Backbone:
């Protein structure tokens, strides 16, 4: 069996009896009448633990009994569609090294065919096995990193930041749990524009998408709280936390076991408050139109929830786009929430009518639009959002039931940059 800590060797040992008809015994009872011969071997089972990349792995059918010399084997080992070299292909036991991997969702697929040169093998002549490979050196998602050569530091020093400045903020978090034999893996990716305020060394931050400067919190407290949350969700006693900082960028990365539990990256855009990060225009049925404006900023959030069981791996994706601008002298904010089979909100197009009433929604927030302000339920509509690493664009045509039970048609388009 596989002993991960002693010698890194994995073997499958479960025995089942099958019957081979025909052929002769090479010894044993000495009965040369060609009667049934008993052969036992180990059926491959997916009820196994993952292996580390670079781990030496042994898989055995553990064939025993009479006439085993009459058995032939045909093994196939692949990883992400590519063949994996192995030894022992003409025997009941093979050995190979788990390939290098990025992330923890990649698997080795093994197929073993057995056949008798003289006789009939009764039972499962073809066996299958899937082994998940763990990444020992987890890679921080690339969207978090602006400068890959940022120097590592013992701690962040933010006291020299400008009194008010504008930054691009990128955050990635992972949580893992086990429920009824199913591994639940949640990944949250977020990109947005942040404002940082430095008053006598007290450094605070706030999203540009928020309503004014409230609530505002200490930037380091926010990071510390995120690290505490990551530690709570980590089965190891201590996270491995690293800090990186340069003149116009800083980053925090925390790893748990073999995955990135938390990573945040800040890159400076301006040493002053800046809000011209796109365009927005909206037409209403009952209110004055918002002509095209460039005083626009916002954020995007992508949530991936993946379930891993012995049988299959499934994933669902949920996405948020938030936009803020000014309408008739006051803040106006739009929020799009949608679900779908998306790989990543940053590089996949989504378009179509609202299909999931629990997750597809549009909300507008503005005191100048009292009858539709903060109404969460949208009657129906269509939106089309294209995502890129540095921004998103979209068009929408949505009907909202207002506070008077009337239908309000909201039509518009936007572009949003994060740099």
Residues:
């Amino acid at each position: 069996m596989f002993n991960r800590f002693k010698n890194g060797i994995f073997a499958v040992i479960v025995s089942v009896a099958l019957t081979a008809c025909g052929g002769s015994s090479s010894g044993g009872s000495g009965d040369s009448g060609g009667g049934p011969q008993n052969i036992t071997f180990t059926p491959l089972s997916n009820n196994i633990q993952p292996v580390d990349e670079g781990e030496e792995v042994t898989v055995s059918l553990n064939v025993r009994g009479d006439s085993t010399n009459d058995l032939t084997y045909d093994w196939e080992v692949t990883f992400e569609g590519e063949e994996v070299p192995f030894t022992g292909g003409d025997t009941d036991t093979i050995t190979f090294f788990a390939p290098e991997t990025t992330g923890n969702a990649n698997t080795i697929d093994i197929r073993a065919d057995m056949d008798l040169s003289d006789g009939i093998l009764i039972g499962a002549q073809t066996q299958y096995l899937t082994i998940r490979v763990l990444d020992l050196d987890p890679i921080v998602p690339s969207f978090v990193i602006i400068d890959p050569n940022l120097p590592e530091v013992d701690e962040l020093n933010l006291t020299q930041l400008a009194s008010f400045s504008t930054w691009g903020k990128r955050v990635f978090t992972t949580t893992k749990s086990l429920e009824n034999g199913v591994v639940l893996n949640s990944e949250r990716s977020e990109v947005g524009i942040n404002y940082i305020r430095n008053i006598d060394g007290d450094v605070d931050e706030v999203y540009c998408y928020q309503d004014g400067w409230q609530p505002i919190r200490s930037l380091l407290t926010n990071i510390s709280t995120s690290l505490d949350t990551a530690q709570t969700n980590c089965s190891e006693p201590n996270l491995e936390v690293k800090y990186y900082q340069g003149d116009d960028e800083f980053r925090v990365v925390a790893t748990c076991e073999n995955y990135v539990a938390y990573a945040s990256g800040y890159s400076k855009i301006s040493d002053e408050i800046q809000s011209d990060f796109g365009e927005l225009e909206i037409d209403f049925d009952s209110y004055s139109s918002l002509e095209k404006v460039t005083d626009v900023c916002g954020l995007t959030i992508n949530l991936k929830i993946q379930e891993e069981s012995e049988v299959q791996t499934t994933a669902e994706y949920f996405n948020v786009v938030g936009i803020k601008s000014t309408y008739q002298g006051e803040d106006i904010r739009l929020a799009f929430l949608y679900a779908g089979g998306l790989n990543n909100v940053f590089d996949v197009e989504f378009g179509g009518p609202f299909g999931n009433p629990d997750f597809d929604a549009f909300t507008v927030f503005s005191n100048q639009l009292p009858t539709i302000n903060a109404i969460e339920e949208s009657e129906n509509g269509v939106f089309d959002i294209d995502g890129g690493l540095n921004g998103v664009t979209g068009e929408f045509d949505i009907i909202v039931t207002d506070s008077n039970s009337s239908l309000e048609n909201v039509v518009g388009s936007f572009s949003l940059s994060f740099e």
